[in-house]
Amino acid sequence: xxxxxxxxxxxxxxxxxxxxxxxxxxxxxxxxxxxxxxxxxxxxxxxxxxxxxxxxxxxxxxxxxxxxxxxxxxxxxxxxxxxxxxxxxxxxxxxxxxxxxxxxxxxxxxxxxxxxxxxxxxxxxxxxxxxxxxxxxxxxxxxxxxxxxxxxxxxxxxxxxxxxxxxx
Length: 168
Description:
Layout: E1 8-9, H1 26-35, E2 43-47, H2 53-62, E3 65-70, H3 73-86, E4 92-96, E5 102-103, E6 109-112, H4 116-129, E7 135-139, E8 150-155, E9 160-167
Parallel strand pairs: 2-3, 2-6, 3-4, 6-7
Antiparallel strand pairs: 1-5, 7-9, 8-9
């Protein structure tokens, strides 16, 4: 089934949490989107979107469209409210859905802040469904033996956060 504006889905599998909810710091969000070189031409998917801050920031700063997906209905409600408050709800959508069932092919940028094992579970799906030129950006965790195209890091007063980019 395909829905409006290039947001697609595939048949359902049982829902499985791929990471706990942990907010991504604004400096990390900005660095992830900058590393992925997001533009107004992009459709940014955030897998495990939490409160929606990655796709909301992509819409606010670059005019990109976005889709945030999360299992937690409370996080989806919060993300929709944040998008409305930001005045960019026409650019972004949020869905409560299992990431493993999501059709990724419409995305030009995919953002992840999941656990290492979850990244590995999604790795083959990302490589097989995304078009050449698509970018994948992760925070803190890589994709095992799949070397990134680029790595950067940002720091706050306490921690340093690695950010990885793969360009297909």
